[in-house]
Each structure stands twice: as structure tokens, then as C-alpha cells.
Design a protein that fits this description.
This protein is α/β, with parallel strands linked by helices. It folds into 2 domains: about 150 residues, Rossmann fold (3-Layer(aba) Sandwich), CATH 3.40.50.280; about 300 residues, pyruvate-formate lyase- activating enzyme, CATH 3.80.30.20. Helices cover about 35% and strands about 15% of the residues. The protein is built from 17 helices and 17 strands. It has a 7-stranded mixed sheet with strand order 14-13-12-11-8-7-17. Strand 15 and strand 16 form a beta hairpin. Helix 9 runs parallel beside helix 10, helix 15 packs antiparallel against helix 17 and helix 16 runs antiparallel to helix 17. It is globular and about 70 Å long. It comes from Sphaerobacter thermophilus (strain ATCC 49802 / DSM 20745 / KCCM 41009 / NCIMB 13125 / S 6022). This is Radical SAM domain protein. Its cofactor is [4Fe-4S] cluster. InterPro entries: BchE-like, Cobalamin-bd, Elp3/MiaA/NifB-like_rSAM, Methyltransferase_Class_B, rSAM, rSAM_CUAEP, rSAM_horseshoe, rSAM_sf. GO terms for molecular function: 4 iron, 4 sulfur cluster binding; catalytic activity; cobalamin binding; metal ion binding.
Length: about 475
């Protein structure tokens, strides 16, 4: 009888020695092109407790059959939709090669899709603060305990995600693939290896479409400054000349963020960084922006999402089109580029909204600031989404497509559904061909105006003849 069958029967036999090298296998599939912190933290937690886990990042290295066959517990990191799609493929392969392995998923999208994952692919899921629950579950498996573990849902029982603050260990990166195999900062014709860390978990805000919200519900935790700084120090020793602060919002705790940046700059004045923060926070903390620039900030990712007031209101984004314009001005005055992320296709988007977005991008000279894939992004509504709590959602929501990890929906304007598919095709083809962003944008613009039945207006000409590409990471990213 397999381990999974034993769990379904309600009796768990001791799984044996999980301290043996490779008995625990941690897998990451996609984490936006950076060395996975979602491997480094659990690696540290498990290693400190006497285990010898093996970690594999399938984005840059193969997962061989021998590692799968040797594992008794396989935990797959799924912090986002793309990672989950790839992660279920890994789980399927693990089940074929090693049917007795206990397979689980951890991260935001694990808990959101728990019912489907536990029925079709895995034996456990962990959401929220995952390190302590994972360790406790490993210990329970080793002891053969059937008792529920805080933060861990199985086929036998469901529990809420754990939001208990953990003791953050120093991330364990020594066994992970080399820094040079991940995204680089592209700036002034130079490629600089980019490291990655986080200063907080969760988010203070509750945007309705965000996958962080159903888990953290407005809470966030600061990671100790000494842990963050030592993690940066170790990555710089490995060759990083740039650091991505990947917090859901770096300015949730602005004082914490500023102290870390000051300390990093004092020790490594040559190291640059980027951060993600809300338009609202750029405006609120405008007095801090010049100092962040002096400390090495070269670009800011901000979830602009749309310039339609209707769309921004429906997702409770907390900013307006005018706020975006002001945020651009604040960043530009400090010498920092904005890299907007977009959500152009929603149930409320009109054709005019999409054309307005394209005009806005041209008017404010943002073509080179936006990865073309962002012009194709379609609203995901995963199980547990805060959008499901809104009564008006039933007006447009379709059935749940469990295997796609989202509820379905269609635009009231069929032209927009067709346009979304065409823009996705254009963006993918442009990325594969290494096409210039301006050329890809021109093709997207032509497709949009054709869908609207309108003549394509001429491109907006820049005031200057010099085209200076803004800093960016070498890998286009999407959730």
C-alpha cells in the first residue's frame, strides 16, 4: 500500500529516516528568473533541524530520475500561477517514478488550489508562512503521527494557512545554482548578475485581484534586518551587482526598507537595486524617493494595471490615472525608471480602455519600460480570490476551471477576448525572436486598432532623438 493510500485510509505508517541525504526533495519551477528564495529559506530551516534536503530549480537545471527515486518527501514551491502549472507537471512525473513519495505544494497558489491539488496531484499543501509547518509535517511523517499539523492541509483534513511569525533563518543558497544562471540587470549596455531577497512577507493592502490577499488578509511580517543584510552580503560574494527586493510591496514598512538600503549602500556602494511598490506609496513617500535613488535604486516595479478608472475601482487598486502620472513624475525627477505591470484584460475592460492604455504608454514614453507580455495579461480569479466575496461578481463569473487554477469569464465584448489571444501571440513571438520592444508594440497597436475597426494613428514621436533604454532585468516576467 502506498503512502498516499495509507493517508487516505486514515492510518499513517512511519515513513522512515528522513535525515538521509535526498530523502527530502525541494523543487522550484519558476520564480521570475531569480535564484529561488522559496528554496533557500526551507533549505535552511530543514538543515538546521538535522535534515539533508536536496533542492532543484527546474528553471535552470534538470531534475533527474535518481533524485526523484531517492526522495521520500517532495515539496514543490508554487508562489504564482505559472509556477503551479509547471509544478503539477513535476508532481505527475514524481508520482510515476516514485509512487510511494509523499508529494506536497507550498506557497500562495498551493493553498488557493488545495482541493484540486490534493485530489489530483499531492498529499499535502501549505500556505502562508510555510517553513515551520513544513518542518513540523516532516517530523510528523517520520513519527507516523496522524495529528493535524498547523498550516498543513492533507487529504484527511483542511486547516487555514499559518500566519504565525517564524524565526527567520539565514537563507541557505550554497547548494543552489550559480547566480550567473539567473536574470541580469541590463543597464547602459551592460549585463550585471542580479540577486534577490525580501524584507517583508504578506501585504498591508487588500487589492481584490491579488493572490496575497486571501492568505494574509492585510497582514505583513518584517524579516529581520540582519538576516536580509547577510543574505545580500552572501549574494554579492557570489557575484551579484544588483539586488531585486521582491516584497509584494517594499514600502509597506518604509523605515525598515530605508534602513536596509542605507546599510547595503554603506557596505556595497556599487550595488544597485530595484523594488516593487504601489503607486499610492510612491505618492505618500515621495520625500524618500530621492534618497532611494542616491542609495542605488535604478527602477521601480509598480502595479499600474490599467488607466481605466472603472477597472481600477472594480479591483480596489487605490490609485487613479492622475496618480500614475504623478508617480511617473516623482520617479523621473529622482532619476528612477518605472516599470509598470499591467492587467489590461478584465471583465470590465472596454475596447476604448485598451486603446487608451496604448495611447498612455506612447504619450509617457513607456514602451521600453514594459515587457510586451504585460499587454496580454488577463485577469485570473483563483479559488479563494477576494473578488468572489463581491456580490456583483456573479454577473460575469463563469465556472471554475480547476486544472487551469482559475474561474472562467468572458468579456461582454467578444472582440476583446480575441484581441487578448492575438496580443499574447504577438508578445510571445516577439520575445522568441528577440524583437525590439518598439516593433512588438507597433504590432500590438495595429492589432488593437484593427479589432476596433479603426485606422491606426501614427506613432507618438519623442522630443529627443536619443533613445536611452531604461534599466530592466534580462528575463521578461509574468505571474
Amino acid at each position: 500500500m502506498s503512502t498516499a493510500t495509507q493517508q487516505n485510509a486514515g492510518a499513517r505508517a512511519p515513513i522512515g529516516d528522513l535525515t538521509a541525504p535526498g530523502a527530502i526533495l525541494l523543487v522550484s519551477c519558476y520564480e521570475l528568473g531569480h535564484q529561488p528564495l522559496n528554496l533557500a529559506f526551507p533549505l535552511a530551516y530543514l538543515t538546521q533541524a538535522g535534515y539533508s534536503p536536496v533542492a532543484v530549480d527546474t528553471a535552470v537545471e534538470p531534475l533527474d530520475d535518481a533524485a526523484i527515486a531517492a526522495a521520500r518527501v517532495v515539496a514543490i514551491s508554487v508562489p504564482m500561477h505559472t509556477a503551479l502549472r509547471l509544478g503539477t507537471q513535476v508532481a505527475r512525473r514524481v508520482r510515476q517514478i516514485n509512487p510511494d513519495a509523499v508529494i506536497g505544494f507550498y506557497g500562495l497558489y498551493a493553498w488557493l488550489n488545495a482541493d484540486y491539488l490534493l485530489r489530483e496531484h499531492g498529499d499535502f499543501v501549505i500556505g502562508g508562512e510555510y517553513e515551520r509547518p513544513l518542518l513540523d509535517f516532516v517530523r510528523a511523517l517520520a513519527a507516523g503521527s496522524d495529528e493535524p499539523v498547523e498550516g498543513v492541509s492533507t487529504r484527511d483534513y483542511r486547516v487555514p494557512p499559518s500566519l504565525a511569525r517564524i524565526d527567520f533563518p539565514m537563507p541557505e543558497r550554497a547548494s543552489l545554482p550559480a547566480m550567473k544562471r539567473y536574470a541580469h540587470l541590463m543597464i547602459d549596455g551592460t549585463a550585471i548578475p542580479a540577486g534577490y531577497t525580501e524584507t517583508t512577507r504578506g501585504c498591508h493592502h487588500t487589492c481584490l485581484h491579488c493572490p496575497v490577499v486571501p492568505i494574509y488578509r492585510g497582514r505583513f511580517f518584517a524579516i529581520p534586518r540582519e538576516v536580509v543584510l547577510e543574505d545580500i552580503r552572501r549574494q554579492v560574494r557570489q557575484g551579484a551587482g544588483h539586488i531585486t527586493f521582491g516584497d509584494p510591496d517594499f514600502l509597506n514598512g518604509p523605515t525598515h526598507a530605508l534602513r536596509i538600503c542605507r546599510a547595503m549602500h554603506a557596505e556595497f556602494p556599487h550595488v544597485t537595486f530595484d523594488m516593487t511598490t504601489r503607486i499610492e506609496h510612491i505618492l505618500k513617500h515621495r520625500d524618500l524617493i530621492p534618497e532611494f535613488a542616491q542609495l542605488g535604486c535604478v527602477f521601480v516595479v509598480s502595479a499600474v494595471e490599467s488607466v481605466s478608472e472603472m477597472v481600477l475601482d472594480r479591483i480596489d487598486k487605490g490609485h487613479t490615472k492622475a496618480d500614475v502620472v504623478e508617480a511617473l513624475r516623482i520617479l523621473e525627477s529622482a532619476g528612477i525608471a518605472m516599470r509598470p505591470s499591467l492587467l489590461p484584460f478584465t471583465p470590465w475592460t472596454t475596447m476604448e480602455d485598451y486603446l487608451e492604455l496604448l495611447r498612455f504608454v506612447e504619450e509617457y514614453d513607456l514602451i521600453d519600460n514594459i515587457d510586451p507580455v504585460h499587454f496580454s495579461i488577463r485577469l485570473l480569479v483563483p479559488p479563494g480570490s477576494a473578488l468572489l466575496d463581491r456580490p456583483e461578481t456573479k454577473e460575469w463569473l463563469g465556472p471554475l476551471d480547476e486544472a487551469a487554477f482559475t474561474y472562467t469569464w468572458r468579456s461582454p465584448d467578444p472582440r476583446l477576448d480575441a484581441l487578448q489571444q492575438e496580443v499574447a501571440r504577438i508578445a510571445e513571438a516577439g520575445e522568441a525572436a528577440g524583437q525590439d520592444y518598439e516593433e512588438t508594440f507597433a504590432q500590438i497597436k495595429a492589432a488593437a486598432y484593427a479589432a476596433a475597426g479603426l485606422e491606426v494613428p501614427p506613432p507618438v514621436r519623442r522630443d529627443t532623438g536619443v533613445r536611452r533604454r531604461p534599466p530592466r532585468l534580462s528575463e521578461s516576467w509574468f505571474c
